[in-house]
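queue> pop job 88
queue> type: inverse folding (structure -> sequence)
queue> payload:
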C-alpha cells in the first residue's frame, strides 16, 4: 500500500509553513470556496491576536508562499482571506498516485487505531423482524465497514433478546405439545418464522386463558434461569429456529452476520450476580426498597425525584441494566475494546446514559475506554407518522424489502437494453436493497426520515440509483474505449469541470476518515452524491472518447476510471452494490 497525502493536507502544510514565520501556532483553516480551490480564513483570527491589519498580514503571508508545482496562484480576498488555486499538474499527479494504489485509492491507515465493539442489529428470538429493526442493521453495518477501512479493528455484537419471562410460556407450551418445532436444519427462513409465529400465538392464547398453564409457565422461567437441562434444550430450539429466520432476512439485506457475533442477553446471565456484587461493594450501587440501584443527581423525574437505574430488582431478578453492564465488562476485559459503539434507537438514550455513567463510576469505562450511543431516529411513512401498514400494524421487514426489489425491477426493466430476465432480477435486488440502505444512510442518523419507495428508486435526485447509474455509465464508456486505455497526462491543462471532479476525488480519504470518526455515514453518502453530480457535469462539458487528442482521451478515461473506482469503494463502505451494467 502506498498512501497518498491529500492536496488539502499538502496545501495546509505549505500555508502553515508560511504562517509560522508570523505566528508559530497559526492554523490556516482551509475550506472549499466558489472563487478558488481553497480559501484560508485563519488570517482574521491571527490578525486580531497580533493586533495587525488583516489584509496587510495576508499580503505578508502571500509573499512567503512559493507558487509552482503545488500552488498555482494565491491572492488576498475580502477582509483578509487567501484564495488558493492548485496547479493542474498537482491534481493529475496526485490522482494518478491514487489510481496506482489499487483498491485503497491511496487512503492511509490510522496509526492510532484501536478496537471498536459495534452493538447493532438486535432482533428478538421468536419474533418477526419489522421496520424498526432496519436502521440499527444498516447503520451498524456501514459504520463497521468505514471503521475497518480506516484501520480500526471492529468486533460485531448482536445483543439479541433471547432471555426473559416470555420463554417460560413458549418452552412450557413445547413441553406439553412436543414436535411443534422441526429441527432448524430442516427449515428455511420463511418456514422458521411461520413455525415460531404459530407456537408463539398458541402459547400466548393458552397463557391468557388458562391460569394453571400460566403458573406452570412461570415455574418454567425459574427452571430456565437455574439452568435445567431439558428446559435449556427447548430454549435452544427457539434460538436456533430464530437464527435461521434472522439469517434469511439479513441475506436479503445483503449483510453478513457471523454466528460467533450473535451474543444475546442469555450470554451474560451467569455474570450478572457478580456485576451486582461488584457495584455494591464499590459503593456505586445501593439498596433502596429492596432493590439494588444507582442514583444520578442530574436525572430526575416526577416531583423532582431521582430516577434510579435498577441493577437488581427487589425479588432478586435482573433486568436490562444488569445485562448491559455485564456486557460492558466482557467487552472491555475480554475483548480489550477501546471503544464501545451502540447503534440503538434514540429512545433508549436515557437508559444508556445511566448505564455508561455507572460503568464509568465502576472504572470499567475511562479516558482510554469510551462508550457512545449512536441513537437513531424513526422510520416514518409518507404521512410523517411512524411507518405502519394500512391496518395499523408494524411493517414486516421482509415485506418492505420485497416491495423495494419489485419497484426496482420496474425501473431496471424500463432502462434495460441488453439484460436477460435473470440479470434484471439480479440487478433489481442490488438496486432495490441499495435504495433502502442509501435512503437511511444519507439521512443524519439521529433524524427521522420518510420511507418513500417512489423517491428511493428514482433515477433523479439524491438516490443510490442515481449513483449506480453513474457507475454503470462509466463502465460503458470504458468498454467502448476498446484498446485505448486510461492514462494520466500531468502535462495537460484541465478544463474547469475536470478540475472540480479531480479535487473532489482527491478528498475521498479525508471524507471517509471524517465520517468514520464522527460516526456519520451520511457525510460519506453526501460526498458520493456530489461525486456523481460532478461527474455528470464533467461528462456533459468534456467529450471523453471524442476529445481533441489521444492524450486527452486517455486522461479523461483516467478520470472516468478513478471516479468509478471511488464510487465503487464508497458505495461498498455503505453496503451497496454497484452493478457493471444497468
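queue> result:
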Amino acid at each position: 500500500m502506498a498512501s497518498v497525502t491529500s492536496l488539502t493536507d499538502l496545501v495546509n502544510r505549505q500555508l502553515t509553513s508560511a504562517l509560522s514565520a508570523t505566528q508559530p501556532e497559526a492554523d490556516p483553516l482551509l475550506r472549499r470556496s466558489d472563487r478558488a480551490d481553497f480559501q484560508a480564513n485563519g488570517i482574521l483570527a491571527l490578525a486580531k491576536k497580533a493586533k495587525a491589519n488583516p489584509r496587510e498580514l495576508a499580503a505578508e503571508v502571500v509573499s512567503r508562499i512559493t507558487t509552482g508545482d503545488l500552488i498555482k496562484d494565491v491572492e488576498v480576498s475580502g477582509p483578509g482571506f487567501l484564495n488558493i488555486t492548485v496547479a493542474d499538474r498537482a491534481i493529475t499527479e496526485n490522482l494518478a498516485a491514487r489510481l496506482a494504489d489499487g483498491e485503497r485509492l491511496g487512503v492511509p491507515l490510522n496509526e492510532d487505531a484501536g478496537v471498536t465493539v459495534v452493538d447493532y442489529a438486535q432482533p428478538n428470538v421468536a419474533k418477526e423482524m419489522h421496520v424498526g429493526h432496519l436502521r440499527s442493521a444498516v447503520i451498524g453495518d456501514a459504520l463497521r465497514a468505514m471503521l475497518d477501512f480506516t484501520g480500526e479493528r471492529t468486533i460485531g455484537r448482536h445483543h439479541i433478546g433471547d432471555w426473559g419471562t416470555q420463554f417460560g410460556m413458549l418452552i412450557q407450551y413445547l413441553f406439553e405439545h412436543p414436535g411443534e418445532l422441526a429441527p432448524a436444519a430442516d427449515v428455511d427462513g420463511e418456514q422458521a418464522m411461520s413455525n415460531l409465529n404459530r407456537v408463539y400465538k398458541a402459547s400466548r392464547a393458552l397463557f391468557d386463558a388458562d391460569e394453571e398453564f400460566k403458573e406452570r409457565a412461570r415455574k418454567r422461567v425459574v427452571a430456565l434461569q437455574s439452568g435445567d437441562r431439558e428446559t435449556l434444550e427447548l430454549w435452544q430450539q427457539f434460538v436456533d429456529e430464530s437464527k435461521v429466520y434472522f439469517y434469511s432476512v439479513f441475506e436479503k439485506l445483503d449483510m453478513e452476520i457471523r454466528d460467533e457475533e450473535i451474543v444475546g442477553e442469555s450470554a451474560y446471565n451467569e455474570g450478572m450476580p457478580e456485576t451486582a456484587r461488584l457495584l455494591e461493594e464499590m459503593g456505586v450501587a445501593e439498596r433502596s426498597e429492596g432493590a439494588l440501584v444507582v442514583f444520578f443527581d442530574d436525572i430526575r423525574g416526577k416531583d423532582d425525584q431521582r430516577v434510579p437505574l435498577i441493577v437488581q430488582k427487589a425479588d432478586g431478578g435482573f433486568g436490562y441494566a444488569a445485562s448491559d453492564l455485564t456486557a460492558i465488562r466482557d467487552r472491555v476485559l475480554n475483548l480489550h475494546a477501546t471503544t464501545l459503539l451502540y447503534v440503538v434507537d434514540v429512545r433508549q438514550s436515557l437508559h444508556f446514559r445511566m448505564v455508561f455513567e455507572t460503568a464509568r463510576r465502576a472504572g470499567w469505562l475511562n479516558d482510554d475506554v469510551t462508550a457512545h450511543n449512536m441513537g437513531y431516529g424513526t422510520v416514518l411513512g409518507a404521512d410523517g407518522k411512524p411507518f405502519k401498514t394500512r391496518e395499523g400494524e408494524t411493517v414486516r421487514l421482509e415485506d418492505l424489502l420485497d416491495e423495494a426489489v419489485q419497484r426496482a425491477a420496474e425501473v431496471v426493466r424500463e432502462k434495460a437494453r441488453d439484460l436477460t430476465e435473470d440479470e434484471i432480477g439480479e440487478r433489481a435486488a442490488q438496486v432495490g436493497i441499495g435504495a433502502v440502505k442509501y435512503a437511511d444512510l444519507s439521512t443524519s442518523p439521529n433524524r427521522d426520515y420518510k420511507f418513500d419507495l417512489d423517491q428511493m428508486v428514482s433515477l433523479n435526485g439524491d438516490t443510490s440509483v442515481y449513483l449506480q447509474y453513474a457507475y454503470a455509465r462509466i463502465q460503458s464508456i470504458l468498454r467502448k474505449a476498446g484498446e485505448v486505455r486510461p492514462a494520466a497526462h500531468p502535462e495537460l491543462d484541465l478544463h474547469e469541470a475536470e478540475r472540480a471532479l479531480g479535487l473532489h476525488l482527491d478528498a475521498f480519504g479525508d471524507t471517509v476518515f471524517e465520517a468514520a470518526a464522527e460516526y456519520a455515514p451520511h457525510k460519506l453518502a453526501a460526498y458520493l452524491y456530489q461525486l456523481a453530480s460532478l461527474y455528470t457535469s464533467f461528462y456533459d462539458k468534456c467529450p471523453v472518447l471524442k476529445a481533441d487528442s489521444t492524450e486527452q482521451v486517455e486522461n479523461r478515461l483516467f478520470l472516468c476510471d478513478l471516479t468509478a473506482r471511488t464510487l465503487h469503494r464508497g458505495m461498498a463502505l455503505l453496503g451497496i452494490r454497484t452493478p457493471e451494467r444497468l
